[in-house]
Structure formats: C-alpha cells, structure tokens
Amino acid sequence: MAKEAKKEAEKIDAAAAAKPKEAKKEKKSQKEKPKSKKKHAKVQVWKLYDVKDGKAVRKREKCPRCGPGVFLAAFKKRKYCGKCGWALWQHG
Ligand SMILES: [Zn+2]
Fold first, then answer.
1. CA atoms 12, 13, 18, 21: torsion sign
2. Stated pTM of the model
3. 66 falls within a domain
4. Around ion ligand 1, which residues have CB less than 5 A away?
5. What is the 8-class DSSP label of residue 13?
6. Distance 71 CA to ligand 1 centre (A)
C-alpha cells in the first residue's frame, strides 16, 4: 500500500513538472526612457531683488516659515513657498 502512495506522489510531481512554462514575456527595459533635453536651470534669485538707494529691495514676499531668503511664488489667488510648502490663499 505504501508503494502505491509513493507512486501517486510521483505522478503529481511529474504533472507539476510537465506544466507548460509561461510564454516568455519580453520585458521592456526601463533604461529606454527618453531623457528630457531640458537641463535644470539654476534659480535666478538675483531677479527677485531690486536695488534702490544702494539697498536691496526684495520684489517677492518672504516665507514666514523659512524666513528671509526664501521667497513665495505668487499666483493669482495663492502664494506658495516651494521650500516648505507654506501656502496662503487669497479669497475674493
Ligand atoms: Zn517656506
């Protein structure tokens, strides 16, 4: 009886081995991504300053969280700090 059980087990193994292998899927290599031709331009901070009477005048508002040196991006309805994410909505 034990022999038969063993034979049965072998059959199952054989069936598992005979399983058709899944068709090989061609993997698209991730290296083929087109690189953007734009190079990262440095932030032109000097554009945000004006010189009046020998003093530097900031054209943009500074970030209340980051302090002076970090300016807020001004949108139509919103001011946003790109460094810390601080935002101010202007309603109306
Ligand atoms: Zn900030």
1. positive
2. 0.48
3. yes
4. 63, 65-66, 70, 81, 83-84, 86
5. H
6. 8
Alpha-carbon gap, residue 65 to 10, rounded angstroms: 71
In contact, 55 and 43? CB cutoff 8 Å: no
Domain assignment present for 92: yes
Q: What is the pLDDT of residues 11-28, one digit of tens each?
A: 767 666 666 666 666 666
pLDDT, tens digit, 9 for 90 and up, residues 34-44: 888 888 888 78
Structural domain includes residue 79: yes
Rounded to the nearest angstrom, the distance between the alpha carbon of 60 and the centre of ligand 1 is 13
Kindly give, in sequence order, each residue whose CB lies less than 8 Å from that of residue 83, ignoring residues fewer than 6 positions away: 63, 66, 70
**Identity of the residue numbered 66:** C
Tell me if 78 is assigned to some domain: yes
Report CA(3)–ligand 1 centroid distance (Å).
Answer: 77
